[in-house]
Design brief:
With 197 residues, this protein is an alpha/beta fold. Helix content is 42%, strand content 11%. It has helices spanning 2-10, 16-29, 32-44, 46-54, 56-62, 96-99, 109-117, 119-125, 162-166, 171-175, and strands spanning 73-77, 82-87, 135-140, 146-150. Helix 3 crosses helix 4 and helix 7 (109-117) packs across helix 8. The structure holds fe (iii) ion (FE).
């Protein structure tokens, strides 16, 4: 990405400032931080959680996030009894307004085919080991419906405010290939980017 960007900028195809704005938009404004804020609100507001589970499109739009590839959203909540995992077996359908652009692995044939056959194995590859008693439910995204996973609120987060809670909600935890971060533990891969400044 950086190498291509350098070439395009040097040759005058792309203006440096325009490119920075585009990257910044996808990394911070339209990106997993949007979904993180939705989840943090759901963790702290039972009425909002109820609304999100009943009509995710409206509840997410209430946060100001709407648009292409987010017209028909469904939110699914993780619990000790059930872990939700999202895929698009056909291509790469993904909820852009809340998660931004899909990660490269989400579009890979390996993920798309294996998640259906062996979800527990895929989760292990991502470092997520669930209790054998936890049911795994795989949701196949389509052109019509996009899914947002509400990860379990981590222990030790009871005293945190919404912005601090949102920082615990990784992109992968909202796809189902990760868990929310535990406060106080060092950050791992997949943590949403920090806002500038
Ligand atoms: Fe698709």
């Amino acid at each position: 990405m950086r190498a291509l960007e350098t070439v395009l900028t040097q040759k005058g195809y792309v203006e440096r400032a325009a490119l920075d704005l585009l990257i910044e938009t996808y990394e911070t404004r339209i990106g997993p931080r949007n979904g993180s804020r939705v989840v943090a609100r759901a963790w702290t507001d039972p009425e909002y959680l109820d609304w999100l589970l009943r009509d995710a499109t409206a509840a997410i739009a209430d946060q100001g996030y709407a648009g292409r590839q987010g017209e028909h959203m469904v939110a699914v909540a993780n619990s000790p009894q059930r872990h939700n995992l999202v895929v698009c077996t056909l291509c790469s359908c993904y909820p852009w307004p809340v998660l931004g652009l899909p990660p490269v692995w989400y579009k890979s044939a390996a993920y798309r085919s294996r998640v259906v056959r062996d979800p527990r194995g895929v989760l292990a590859d991502f470092g997520v080991v669930l209790s054998p008693d936890t049911e795994i439910r795989v949701w196949d995204s389509t052109a019509e419906v996009r899914y947002l996973v509400i990860p379990e609120r981590p222990p030790g987060s009871e005293h945190l405010g919404q912005e601090e809670l949102a920082a615990l909600v990784t992109r992968d935890s909202m796809i189902g290939t990760g868990m929310a971060l535990t406060p106080g533990l060092s950050a791992s891969a997949g943590q949403p980017p920090k806002a500038a400044g």
